[in-house]
Design a protein that fits this description.
The protein is an alpha/beta fold. 23% of the residues lie in helices and 39% in strands. It contains three helices and eight strands. The strands form two sheets. Strands 1, 2, 3, 6, 7 and 8 form a six-stranded mixed β-sheet that branches. The chain has a two-stranded antiparallel sheet with strand order 4-5. β4 (55-56) and β5 (62-64) form a beta hairpin. The longest helix has 17 residues, at 99-115.
């Protein structure tokens, strides 16, 4: 499971012109699920994201996590994160989870995030989504379990 996280000042996701998820200060999380991923992996990644120190402290060092700064999460499914791009000019998605497993683990990840004290908004699994964001930094990390 891969999570591309971006520290944002603002982010929203729209489906068919309607806003389905929107946050201010926090993390935009693009979540990619592979066929070998498990609920244990989702738990590990969620815990890592909630505790990952990417926000500045009083000395302007990345020392604080999203919970410590009172930020929010916006979680968006993105199967293209698990593409194999090593050869050729067309990505291969052979490692991507089948739709049923991808949706199950995406929803499980969200349920874990919502159990935390961090507000969590989402996109819609497998929908054609338009994501708008104002990057903060920019600060972007790829996390993988």
């Amino acid at each position: 499971m891969k999570g591309l996280i971006q520290r944002v000042k603002y982010a929203k996701v729209e489906v068919a012109g309607a806003i389905v998820g929107e946050i201010q200060h926090g993390l935009l999380v693009f979540l990619g699920v592979e066929h070998s991923d498990t609920k244990q992996g989702a738990e590990k990644l969620c815990k890592k994201i909630l505790n990952y120190r990417v926000f500045a402290d009083e000395a302007d060092k990345m020392n604080l996590n999203i919970q410590q700064v009172g930020g929010s999460l916006l979680v968006v499914s993105q199967f293209t994160l698990v593409a194999d791009t090593q050869s050729g000019n067309r990505p291969s998605f052979s490692s991507a989870a089948p739709a049923a497993l991808g949706k199950e683990l995406y929803e499980y990840f969200i349920s874990l995030a919502k159990r935390s004290t961090t507000p969590c908004k989402t996109g819609i699994y497998a929908a054609d989504m338009q994501v708008t964001l104002q990057n903060d930094g920019p600060v972007t990390f790829m996390l993988q379990v």
